[in-house]
Amino acid sequence: MNYKSTRDNKISVTSAKAIAQGLSEEGGLFVPESIPQLTKDDIMALCDKSYPERAYEIFRRYLTDFTDDEIKYCVNGAYSTKNFDSESISEISHLYNGTYILELWHGPTCAFKDMALQILPYLLSCSAKKVIYGKDIAILVATSGDTGKAALEGFKDVPGTSITVFYPEDGVSDMQKRQMTTQEGGNVNVCAVKGNFDDCQNGVKAIFTDAALKAELDKLGITFSSANSINWGRLSPQIVYYISAYASLVQSGDIEYGEKVNIVVPTGNFGNILAAYYAKEMGLPVNKLICASNANNVLTDFINTGVYDRNRHFYTTISPSMDILISSNLERLLYHLTGDNDKQIAEWFGKLAKDGKYEVTDDVKAKISELFWAGCCDDEATKGAIKQAFDEYSYLMDTHTAVAYKVYSDYKAATGDETKTIIASTANPYKFGRAVYEAVGGETAGTDEFTIIEKLEKHTGTTMPAPLAATKTKPVRFTGSVDKSGMSKVVLDFLKSR
Ligand SMILES: *Cc1c(COP(=O)(O)O)cnc(C)c1O
């Protein structure tokens, strides 16, 4: 199976090329030319398999240019108890009556990004062997917090690779910043940007398409690749956990095969919810995909009106990994919903780049309303949701998960839908300890992150995960901060110094 660019159908590449390259030359994203189908028997056969075995079954349908041994090497290397604190890799917690929390944060950085970024280095090094033999890969990441750390952990000291991470100076939590600036490894570089996440992301995109820089790197024997969720190697691993969760619920008897479930996803760049869409299109019995946003509700408006308009105030919220006004992966959804209309996609995303705005056709609007429901909530409602879930179900959730939980209760109130529901939980609450502690009634003024965390442990009777505790004593290695215009120099200086 090949992968096409969303902005030019004539470009068709193998999965190895799509993964190694990240983004298509003309700025489009790679999408599978057809979506593999799972039958009832296929899904039932997953029930008594382990997570890596389930992942293998999904990957072999997408990465058809990888050998079976290569795929097994990738899934077994990534999804083991060496890296995850749970035998089942992701865990399902039954919150109340048919409402399940899918905990995707049992990996080394305590956020769901590990589910993809633990396997991406394996997928990328297999891909590189096939398509860019002999070159080193320089990974560039723009992060709103969690991707950066998860990518650093995934790539640290992987031979033949280096990684540079840019994060918005004031757009990440204390813990996120500490996790990144204390990163270990000989091939890693971390730098703050004076701007927001979109500035970081646009800066990285500009570096990727800078022909002069590319020529300079060619001389050094280096080629760029991306670990952002625009890379197919990031997106495909996320399809696995929705299918795996369904199989687990069938296996435990919580649902019967064929019973549809809703999936609620706290959304930023639209990667995680797009993976749920692929799972549904593969044949997983899914009712509604519920897209939850914080105060940066550009997606809520888009799903409800068909108009995407990024010309609006940018809010810095307590769910910073969703503080995004350009949701890159939406491009892939629209490509599929327009029936692979590359010209249309190029036109809309040209408008987005130029005017910050585009409107989809009535036909696409109708398809979106059929598939999705969207809602948003502000910081106060997010904190209210954390408190309510803790008081009522003794379940402590992080700020991102709480946005999903709140939007799901709005969905139920608005529709009366009682379909069983999986809420994607994207981070451990201790990653956002300050806001979570305030939500459950704690006082944080003038208190540092680690003191707050101790108080949160006492107050809730829960414990901070070991990888977060370890950052307390590690030395800070990276203190740099640049304007958006200085980003390419940071990259070049780092690569030349290696
Ligand atoms: C990245 C992230 C999100 C948003 O996921 P997208 O795939 O960008 O939509 C939500 N929650 C957390 C904790 C994250 O790290």
Brief account:
With 498 residues, this protein is an alpha/beta fold.
Write the layout of secondary structure elements.
Elements: E1 3-5, E2 8-13, H1 15-21, E3 30-32, H2 40-46, H3 51-62, H4 68-78, E4 91-96, E5 99-103, H5 113-117, H6 120-131, E6 136-142, H7 146-155, E7 161-168, H8 174-181, E8 188-193, H9 197-208, H10 211-220, E9 222-226, H11 232-251, E10 261-266, H12 271-281, E11 286-293, H13 298-305, E12 307-309, H14 330-337, H15 342-355, E13 357-359, H16 362-371, E14 372-376, H17 379-393, H18 399-415, E15 421-425, H19 433-439, H20 449-460, H21 466-470, E16 481-482, H22 487-496
Helix pairs in contact: 1-6, 3-4, 3-11, 11-12, 17-18, 17-19, 19-20
Plain-language structure description:
The protein has helices at residues 15-21, 40-46, 51-62, 68-78, 113-117, 120-131, 146-155, 174-181, 197-208, 211-220, 232-251, 271-281, 298-305, 330-337, 342-355, 362-371, 379-393, 399-415, 433-439, 449-460, 466-470, 487-496, and strands at 3-5, 8-13, 30-32, 91-96, 99-103, 136-142, 161-168, 188-193, 222-226, 261-266, 286-293, 307-309, 357-359, 372-376, 421-425, 481-482. By secondary structure, it is of the alpha/beta class. The protein has a domain at 91-105 and 237-432: Rossmann fold, CATH 3.40.50. The mean pLDDT is 95. The protein binds pyridoxal-5'-phosphate (PLP).
